[in-house]
Fold these 3 entries.
Entry 1:
Amino acid sequence: RDARGAPAAAAMEAREPLRDVRGALRAVLARLRGAGRGRAGFGPSRAGSPRAELCQTFQVTSQEATKLSLAFSRPPLPSAEDCQKLSEDVQNAIFAVATVYYWLPKGQGTTLRKMVRDATTEVVEGVIQLTDTILSAPVESLPQEQLISTGGVWEACEQVSNLPRDNQAAVVSALSACLGVVKDAVEEMEHALVEGQDPYGDIMEDEELGFRGNRDTYWSEADRQLLSSCMGLMKASKACLKKVLAAVKAHGKADSPEHIAQLDDVADIANEISPSVDELALSMYPPVNPLAVRLNAAKLASVLKKVLEIAKTSHVCPPSEEGWVQFLNGAVDHNMNKIKNFTQGQL
């Protein structure tokens, strides 16, 4: 029994350097996540293109992860010495990726930096997952999980080619993502509000909900009048994002610290639209609490007014864009005033 166990014990020992690497990568990951909360800074700018360096380091990481996976995919498994070398190469590749992120100049924009950080984090998470899989796999076997983990690292590394070239492109990407989410929310609520439709039609009747005549599962006529104005506010959110996105595409520049900072301000406040739309939509389902609806509508209206104000005072809104800013401000006020009128008796 001891003789048979000797190769297995040796193989486990050979993997030991991987445990050390996993620990080091977890520390890198923790620091990257901390950078998102302002605990870790960026170094000063240095020569060379951060994007080109990032592409190169991601490619090297993909190659080193592949070598590591192949080494543990079939017998004979690597010796302790070989495993040490493989582990060091993977660790150095990840350190290089993280270093390029930390050297990314502050002045290039917080929206761009966040996207680079997210891409870097995904690569580190992928390599940690791969080391976990190798360490937990039975000796001399290639589990499906290892193939999946390796593919995950490849995918994460390939994402570098999709990273925006500058902060203007990063803000366009961020606004497009927000617009997609808001469009979905508007369509979902429009679908639910179709005349006569039961918003809980996809839920089977059961003892807790009561039978289908329960008024808590339907909108009253008064509810529908209130929700019509809420829909107007949600549609104004969609229009606002579309117009701001078009303005950033047409006029946005990442050619000076002031312009880059203005783009970040637009992206930061626009990021608040989607959660605010979601909160309003959730409060619109029966049983409707008019005061909760009014509160959430007021929050959304406030965010939209801020978005329009920040966009208007930035370089993305030259005089040619002022017309839609004024129109959407009016649309927000109009719908919010109607919501206040419908809920006045509830105060």
Entry 2:
Amino acid sequence: IFTVLFMYLTTTSTAQTADCLHLREQCINAANGCESVWNVVEDLCNISVLGRRCKAEDVIGCNKIIHMLADEYPEFKNCACTSDDLCSITTLLGKQCSINKDSISMEIKLQWSLSALSKQAYTANRTCLDVNKECVEDEVCNKQLSLYLKVCSVNKCNTEECQTAIRFFYQNMPFEVAQIMTFCECIEPDDSCHRAKELLHGKPCAITAVPPPSCVNVVHMCEENELCRKKYTSFHSTCWRHVSKQCYSDEACLETLIKGDMPCSASADCKAAYISNWGTMLRMECTCQNLPTAEQRLCQLFHHMLHSKSCFH
């Protein structure tokens, strides 16, 4: 439906393409994940569906999530703020939401430049309890964390919406901060640290399924989703270039990879690609239990690629 809609939009007048209310209805009715992103837009921007005023307390954050919607669903590209015109989405959000994309990016960078947390150099083996505490005590980080936790509340958990929120959370911070949060650790049996880690990493709402899917199914489901497929392709090509897809059906090849020390690039680009997987099914906890013997090797390979942090230590 969105492919047809996009073709329609490219041939219609500006007045028609500005009909963001119509796009909103299309988005809500589409079975492609768009509704979950839109629900987060409404939640973070505090939109009244029947009203026409922008009630967003955080206008910068509101605009940022709108651009995330437009990036993931290009049909909304005319409903995002540009430097040439007011947001056409002002039919829902009001004139306060007319900041252009470059201004948003600069403003967010300015906010983070004033953050003490963003000035810290990344070091391995930071505890998640310390990282969580530092984020809460940092005004900029705490503001973003609060928005994310609001959507990912266990009491009203919607997995897709929570994944959208955690995607927004990690995309909207400097790379150094994202590293600190992604690669924090806990030493058993520190329950407080593990609870802090769950908060930072979206557990249970964003990454836990009952029963847990097989890692093979996770990758296959990801490849059927356009957004996830792009992130997986980037992650695979950046971190695991030597792991050829031809190897997936070759038992001897798989055994060699799994038994050997599977090297990955471990570059900054690889870390960024790994962090970019937040908010997709690639970060879902998965298992290799109860699988047919023929699938075990491939499952172990996928589990290692998706969840092992040995590449980054």
Entry 3:
Amino acid sequence: AGEGSASTPGDGGGPPAPERVLFPPTFSVSEIKNKQRRHFMFLRWKQQQRKEKLALKKKRRKEREALGDKAPPKAVPKTIENQRVYDETTVDPNDEEVAFDEATDEFAPYFNRQTVPKILITTSDRPRGRTVRFCEQLATVIPNSHVYYRRGLALKRIIPQCIARDFTDLIVINEDRKIPNGLVLSHLPDGPTAHFRMSSVRLRKEIKRKGKEPTEHVPEVILNNFTTRLGHSIGRMFAALFPHDPQFIGRQVATFHNQRDYIFFRFHRYIFKSEKKVGIQELGPRFTLKLRSLQKGTFDSKFGEYEWIHKRREMDTSRRKFHL
């Protein structure tokens, strides 16, 4: 064959076999210009990463089984939570100052069983269907709550009417582009008022493997990871929405779980499968809250005195610094 021939020895002079392209070690998937090809190569790379990780995990497990009792202790993985920067306002349950504040704050009558929660749930002006359904489902979660759809009525006029009718709390659901995106919680008659950003709202019909409709039993309340003075106040606000004496026969639980300053709300029913096994069914709705401000007194956007305001550029400089 001549110098320009593409045939190889032993192939009978047929067309050459395609050569296998090897990417250089410094090659990045992001350098691929074709979007579909780039996405395909990224998925292959992720699949390979998972296989290598699983193989390493199996290898380590076999080594630990072979060593038996002589195996070294498992390493604790580093997470943002266990590397959290210490907050000087972290609450000590045995602190006398904290106990005095709890005995004299705005929620003390509730925890002393002197008042029974009565909640008014309202919306922004002219709510759309999704927000209306969310308010209706929220009213089935919080006992003794009433839904009122305001039409152009200012909150400053609603609050005196709520106080006159013995409501203890006011919840306002705001929306943007037909989607609930904010929650204002005001404790009556003297505050405080918390403003949250709301996201990841899921109604009951949107939750997979959901349980049957909730009953009218008073649910239990679980508050997780509200450790600072600010978080303690927010946790007491949520607790004051529910009657103090839950009806355990209903087996319903409302959970406010704080993780990295995001508050995840879930509503479950637990089922005893045996003496040792317990299953749970999510009833819904579910949503996520992010605290934006805490204001003294009732809602006053112009002249209100704020205890805490979330300032992103000043407060979010470290990923390991949390405020709740």
